[in-house]
Amino acid sequence: MPEIKELVKNLAQKHGKTRESLIPILQGVIQAERYISDEAMTEIARELDMSAAQVYGTATFYSFLDTQPRGKYVIRVCRTISCAMKGKNLINQEIEDLLKIKVGETTPNKKFSFLETNCLGWCHKGPAMLVNDEAYTDLTPEKVREIINQYMKK
Amino acid sequence: MSYSNLKRVDLIFDQDYNPKEIIKNAWAKTNDQVINELLESGLKGRGGAGFPTALKWKYTAEQPEPDKYIICNADEGEPGTFKDREILFKVPQKVFGGMTVGAKVIGAKEGYLYLRGEYRFLLPELEKQLDIFHTILKELKIDFNIKIIMGSGAYICGEESALFESMEGHRGEPRNKPPYPTVSGFRKKPTVINNVETLVYAFMICKHGARKFKDLGTADSRGSKVFSISGDTPKSGIYELELGMTVEQFVEEFGDGDTKAVQVGGASGFCVPRKKFKDTIIGFEGVPTGGSMMLFNSSRSMYNVLHNYLEFFEEESCGQCTPCRVGCQQLIRGIEAVKKGQRHANYLEHLQKLAQTMKITAKCGLGQSVANSFFSIVENFKEEMIY
After folding, report:
1. Which residue of A has its CA nearest to B148?
2. Is A125 within the bounds of a domain?
3. Nearest to B171 among A18, A58, A124 (CB)
4. Contacts A–B by Cβ distance under 8 A
5. Chain A residues closer than 8 Å to B304 by CB
6. Number of H-type helices and E-type strands within chain B
7. B153 at interface of A, judged by CB pairs closer than 8 A
8. Which of B143, B53, B149, B163 lies closest to B103 in space, CA to CA?
9. What are the two backbone dihedrals, phi and then psi, of residue B222, each rounded to the nearest 5 degrees?
10. Which of A144, B41, B50, B181 could form a disulfide with B210 if both were Cys (CB 3.0 to 4.6 A apart)?
11. pTM of the predicted protein model
12. B18-39 pLDDT, tens digit each
């Protein structure tokens, strides 16, 4: 995996090689790859001169530092109470129908992953979801279909 | 819009301010003068815990250690809270300004803003605003630099010592206290860590003086507060209101006419049922809140509400200490068993004992505060837990 090697090297150059640079580097890998592979973790460990177990232990603590393969677009629907009350389940249903996957799964073409997450901080405009870093609020099934269709074309 | 009983305040989002002037004025004062002004104002932390801001700054200033830090806690994750996002979006210069005044008082050269991962979309604009702010500091010849650090989707990192761990590149597991951050915080150095809103109020107190703030609110809860209002309300959104109102006054303004309960302070806060609206004050003398106000009308099952909160805690528990890790799981299983009739209703008392044990023995605020919503929902809506 020469690309991963290159990516990790560049990130370490940008953020430094101390323990404090670990999370920014992991976040950098997520921004580029959407998940942190075993190869990436081993490479980070080598670059920062620490054990791969420490890298793994840190990465797996954080819900946004995925260590399982994810699609190009990671959808995270808020499941906390205000969004749940505003019809989060209808949004999930729509996404399942559109992408033919359940919560926690990735489409076979590796384009979309569909996850649930805790409070996104859009309680007054629920239901809400993130697609990668982008926030979408006041969702309806129609609106979700439009949004996902746009990402399908990308 | 009518605010018959509630007084709207506009200190936080007021755009009529000049950060350079306020900083210049604060710099013309001695550190003691700034601390005394804050002390006089009665400002308490706006993240929920309510520690007097002036004392936090004073204790850190008194530490002999040469390296100190000031950190803005923008890891806003409490369910039902979204005010910090709005503050960072609308008045970021005030946040940076508050950090700068704090840095002067304690003697810090570096400041950090820890932004939750869910708000990464704010980052490009925040970086731009920060560049503008750094130019102002340069013009004033102030040696202070702010850096933005991103979180990665862990509620527990809003707990100050977990936040330090995360900034240092570790799992966000809270530390034992004491020592408190004022003595040993980020990189084990004396650290002031304040909520976004607290820093803005501190900055506004520098602008207007203590009086304007102190004249608002009550003896225990001075000033105003930004509320994040959601749930069954026709007016969900962000409102800055004078402190000291009762839940009844709040519901009169924001309820949908059928409000049966208000959750004050999010999942880690307290549920106030209709019969207690009248006698419950929203503030440090009654039910404190970091801003989260969720309204529930009579169509809602409080069992579902509690179940949702417990699922939240179970997932966000860092798993480090047993009372919280196992306690959250057992509370969920327990209320599910009672609801399904697999356990007698008396079992709820057993679960309350467990919640009480968590309150006493959990290492940090997360595990300790699970009991708040558990007790206040189970006690006030017992029949909904059983049938």
Report:
1. A24
2. yes
3. A58
4. 118
5. 84
6. 15, 9
7. yes
8. B143
9. -75, 150
10. B41
11. 0.97
12. 999 999 999 999 999 999 999 9
